[in-house]
Design goal:
- The chain contains three helices and no strands.
- By secondary structure, the chain is mostly helical.
- It comes from Paenibacillus lactis.
- This is Proline dehydrogenase.
């Protein structure tokens, strides 16, 4: 089994785990805050404008909670 296959199996095995879900909801945003532009489109667009004003180009991805 190669490392990609192992990684895939581990992610799939924890994806439905309630403890993992609880920890992700509790700490996930704090850990990923520098990658999250906002909780809604208006916040994201404001952050993009600020970053662009500092000469930083960005991409914006809209992700849903149910993505598996």
């Amino acid at each position: 089994m190669d490392s990609i296959e192992l990684y895939r199996k581990v992610l799939l095995s924890v994806s439905g785990n309630k403890l993992v879900e609880h920890l992700a909801l509790r700490y996930g945003r704090k850990l990923a805050a520098k990658f999250i532009a906002g909780s809604n489109l208006e916040e994201a667009l404001d952050e993009i404008e600020r970053l662009n004003g500092n000469g930083i180009m960005v991409t914006l991805d809209h992700l849903g909670e149910g993505i598996k």
